Amino acid sequence: MTHPSHQAPDVAEVTARSRSARTRHIALRATLGTALTALPFTLINAGVPNTFLTVLPLVPGLFVLLLLLLQVRHGRRLHVCERVLRTYPLEYRDRVDRRGSDWLLLGAVHTVKLPIRGRHGAPTMRALNASMTRGWPGGTEAGAWFAGDPAFGGVLIVPGSNDLLFLQPAKWDKYEAERAAADPTRRATATEAGIAGLLEKEPNTIVALGG
């Protein structure tokens, strides 16, 4: 009998779940940021004195909207995850170890070890949730589904929750020689999947909105 975690997930269901979660994430934060930004004007129009405390909600409101704009503008991982899943087959990896997480502008960047069949050691990958949520989904200790090419990147689907994570090498330059030496078919496949180059890197907040 096949263990439930070894049954390949429905890709269409996984991507639809991530797209729905991403839409909710954007809508909730846009609503929160807009409400906080509009609150001082509402209070002043209602006759509340224009003081520091009255206009204070502007600061977190603008911060929420700015952060959301950066994430939407620079975060292309869900679209690429869909391309990867159309290009590469799913393979079950027996164990995926999370080594830590960093909360950055683009989201929570998780560091994971991804074992490769027939290869000694496991490459270190950076993982970001395609839905833009920040929490680590858990449930990968016994394994997860991977599609892609570890030297270029790929996606990870967590059994049970069907969370979709976008992966690329944590140290991109470390695999430059392997990518350069890859045969034309391998490079063409990575290009078709949208992972031939480094897709996402933390934006420079000084120029992110003007570039």
What do these coordinates show?
With 211 residues, this protein is an alpha+beta fold. It is 39% helix and 19% strand. Strands 1-5-6-7-4-3-2 form a seven-stranded antiparallel β-sheet. A hairpin with a 3-residue loop joins strand 5 and strand 6. The protein starts with 10 loop residues before the first helix and ends in an 18-residue tail after the last helix.
Q: What's the quick description here?
A:
The chain is an alpha+beta fold and 211 residues long.
Features:
single chain; about 210 residues; alpha+beta; seven-stranded antiparallel beta sheet; 6 helices; disordered C terminus
Largest pleated sheet: 7 strands, antiparallel
% residues in beta strands:
15-25%
Output mean pLDDT: 86
- Strand order within the widest beta sheet: 1-5-6-7-4-3-2
Protein topology:
Blueprint: H1 11-45, H2 52-55, H3 58-74, H4 77-87, E1 91-93, E2 97-104, E3 107-113, E4 124-129, E5 144-149, E6 153-157, E7 164-169, H5 176-181, H6 184-193
Antiparallel strand pairs: 1-5, 2-3, 3-4, 4-7, 5-6, 6-7
